[in-house]
Amino acid sequence: MILLGLLALAAAQCAAASSTTAAGSNYTAAVGWYAGYHEPDVPLSSVLWTKYTHMTYAFAVPTVDPGAISLAESDAELLPQFVAAAHKNGVKAGLSIGGWGGSQFYSSNLGSASNRTSFVKSVTGLIQKYKLDLIDFDWEYPGVQGIGCNTISSSDTQNFLAMLQELRASPIASNITLTAATAVTPFPATNTNTSIIPQFAAVLDWIAPMVYDLSWNWTAGSPVIQRALPSSPLDDSCFAEVATGEGLQGRGSAKSAVEAWVAAGIPRSQIVLGVPAYGHSFNVNASTAFLPSSSSSSANNTALQLAPYPFYNTLNHTVGDAWDGTGGTDICGAYEGPGGTWDFWALVDAGYLLANGSAAAGVPYWWDACSETPYLYAMDKGVLVSYDDPRSFAAKGAFVRANGLAGFSMWEVGGDPKGVLLDAILSAPTNASLAITAAAAPAATSTTTSGSGSNGAQRRRRVDGRTLALAVLIAVCWMAP
Ligand SMILES: *[C@@H]1O[C@H](CO)[C@@H](O)[C@H](O)[C@H]1NC(C)=O
Ligand SMILES: *[C@@H]1O[C@H](CO)[C@@H](O)[C@H](O)[C@H]1NC(C)=O
Ligand SMILES: *[C@@H]1O[C@H](CO)[C@@H](O)[C@H](O)[C@H]1NC(C)=O
Ligand SMILES: *[C@@H]1O[C@H](CO)[C@@H](O)[C@H](O)[C@H]1NC(C)=O
Ligand SMILES: *[C@@H]1O[C@H](CO)[C@@H](O)[C@H](O)[C@H]1NC(C)=O
Ligand SMILES: *[C@@H]1O[C@H](CO)[C@@H](O)[C@H](O)[C@H]1NC(C)=O
Ligand SMILES: *[C@@H]1O[C@H](CO)[C@@H](O)[C@H](O)[C@H]1NC(C)=O
Ligand SMILES: *[C@@H]1O[C@H](CO)[C@@H](O)[C@H](O)[C@H]1NC(C)=O
Ligand SMILES: *[C@@H]1O[C@H](CO)[C@@H](O)[C@H](O)[C@H]1NC(C)=O
Ligand SMILES: *[C@@H]1O[C@H](CO)[C@@H](O)[C@H](O)[C@H]1NC(C)=O
User: Is the preceding peptide bond at 141 cis, omega within 30 degrees of 0?
Assistant: First the structure.
């Protein structure tokens, strides 16, 4: 009887779901990407399952053979454990296919009817073998070059749709959640006909525009001196004063991404906001980092005021946290410098942030009210960091609610191991002033022109195969005594 009483008590507590659980948050989708290669640092037993409705394992990778999507670069042994742990916790288990370093053969895999059929067979094989509930297509990007050596075709968008239609028609995938991680601008039009976009809404459960990594221009020969703009802005209208060539003006924001996708024909209820548990760093010298009026009082950091969007040298790459690489050769054989990314946990570990995400005493901090994201200045490194904190996650959550979006998807689960950012977005109140006005376009009209390549520069740094290999190496080194 005592046991029954305890069980009843436990059940009652579960029913009174807290606002910091996925169940209590009212989001249809509270999603995280789990990077399998960070498992040594982020064991499955440490994952805060109650804060998620769905979790997606990253990554499986299309190979030159459309019938052979590969888990060779991920841990094929870990995936079944991941699925079992998710299911034990009532969380839908997904697999993400592609990524920044894993999109080389998407275009050719989907390039012909017979290739698509092989690809679909490979996907349904994975669904059955691993008992998956969700497949996420992280193609970076249909019709737009990503890492540099991807196969690419002007028919990518229509081939992507044709594959999804064929997959959806399969009895094995008919009840599976199908999603796509996308750029902040809609898939490129096929022969200037953007009315193909609404058809994706019939076969995908949702799209997740990846609203991060928006502060860099990595194009070779890009202007050396640029402005350090927010990596994951809610709104980017504040950059209007930034001259063309000075930065990445109009590269996109949560607001612009949702406006563009809605206008192209994806209903709000099928949009999940991609949010980052990491930020980007820039080498900004102290004379540039602060407003001139405050530079005299350099003995007292808290008295210094950070300058908005200061200039930095794009060629002088910063080194990020332990999960960031120091540079190396990517899958295309090209050299890439360090990424300069800082995960939320690492900003806390380094002492720049307190455990609750507030800036530590003496760390210069600036809240950019327009982008609704913070900056901090690491005095010891001469490095400015654009990142996300509980306040910016609360703003993103308020935006999701105000616009009736399905929820959020965070890259990556391990970036916020204590759920500090998650709690903020899960318990975010709505904020009507963040509502956008864009209405979905009727299916047969073309209202948007796709960004001509500006999204091609958008990077999803953490999925670089090279970063991946380095991360595994670093993790192994960490584990060694
Ligand atoms: C979720 O919905 C319930 C019922 O409508 C409401 O009482 C609660 O405040 C909502 N929670 C959040 C976080 O919006
Ligand atoms: C179909 O896949 C094969 C590899 O098996 C590839 O060589 C070919 O180019 C693909 N077809 C198209 C049209 O992309
Ligand atoms: C889909 O249906 C199959 C067959 O009924 C079932 O085994 C599987 O669990 C279902 N999957 C989901 C995600 O509902
Ligand atoms: C664009 O595509 C839609 C549906 O695929 C079709 O109905 C429409 O006729 C096309 N419009 C043009 C101008 O090609
Ligand atoms: C990035 O730099 C290149 C080379 O200078 C330039 O052509 C391109 O327009 C820049 N992209 C953005 C989004 O600013
Ligand atoms: C530093 O500046 C802050 C803000 O002006 C002030 O409150 C604080 O007392 C100063 N600390 C020292 C050690 O001067
Ligand atoms: C600081 O950085 C700015 C912008 O990159 C540069 O113009 C300036 O010369 C630098 N100053 C010093 C003292 O290095
Ligand atoms: C974070 O923790 C510090 C130290 O306990 C506290 O002073 C600060 O108010 C907290 N910040 C927030 C936003 O709660
Ligand atoms: C690059 O940045 C670092 C750290 O801010 C600085 O010490 C160094 O002088 C910079 N190098 C160049 C060539 O600007
Ligand atoms: C709602 O959003 C607006 C616009 O970003 C902001 O100014 C305001 O402070 C927000 N209100 C709340 C209660 O957070």
Answer: yes
Q: Whose CA is nearest to atom 10 of ligand 3?
A: 175
Number of C-beta neighbours around residue 338 at 10 A: 18
Query: Could you tell me which residues are beta bridge partners of residue 384?
Result: 282, 377
- Mind listing the pLDDT tens digit for each residue in 176-194? 999 999 999 999 987 666 6
Question: Looking at the CA of 398, which ligand is closest?
Answer: 10
- Per the listing, tokens 């030159």 go with 64
What's the CA-to-centroid distance between 245 and ligand 5, angstroms? Answer: 7
Dihedral sign, Cα of residue 106, residue 136, residue 372, residue 352:
negative
Q: Is the dihedral of CA 448, 233, 99, 173 positive or negative?
A: negative
Pocket flag, ligand 2, residue 154 (CB < 6 Å): no
CB 439 within 8 A of CB 262: yes
Looking from the CA of residue 134, the nearest atom of ligand 3 is 13
Q: Please answer whether residues 266 and 198 qualify as being in contact, where contact means their C-beta atoms are separated by less than 8 angstroms.
A: yes
194: buried, middle or exposed (CB in 10 Å: 19+, 13-18, 0-12)? buried
* Token output for 63: 């190979």
* 72, 116 Cβ separation under 8 angstroms: no
The residues, any chain, with a CB within 8 Å of residue 425's CB and separated by 6 or more, are 275, 393, 394, 396, 397, 400, 408, 410
pLDDT band at 217 (very low <50, low <70, confident <90, very high): low
Atom of ligand 2 at shortest range from CA of 64 = 4
Q: Residue 12 and residue 121: Cα distance in Å, rounded?
A: 44
- Indicate whether 345 pLDDT > 90: yes
Greater confidence (478 vs 149) lies with: 149
Check residue 75 and report its DSSP letter: -
Kindly give the interhelix angle for 78-88 and 113-130, rounded to the nearest 10 degrees: 60
What percentage of the chain carries pLDDT values higher than 70? 81
CB atoms within 10 A of CB 349: 14
- Kindly provide the b/e burial profile for residues 67-95, where b requires at least 16 CB atoms within 10 angstroms of the residue's own CB: ebbbbebbeeebbeebbebbeeeebbbbb
Best of 356, 393, 423 for a ligand 8 pocket test (most atoms within 8 Å of beta carbon): 356
Instruction: Give me 164's structure tokens.
Output: 């999804």
- CB-ligand 4 contact for 445 (6 Å cutoff): no
Contacts of 457 (CB under 8 A, 6+ apart): 216, 217, 218, 219, 248, 251
Q: How many angstroms separate the CA atoms of 348 and 356, rounded?
A: 9
Q: Please work out whether the CB of residue 133 comes within 6 Å of at least one atom of ligand 3.
A: yes
* DSSP secondary structure of 380-427: TTTEEEE---HHHHHHHHHHHHHTT--EEEEE-GGGSTT-HHHHHHHT
The one-letter amino acid at 99 = G
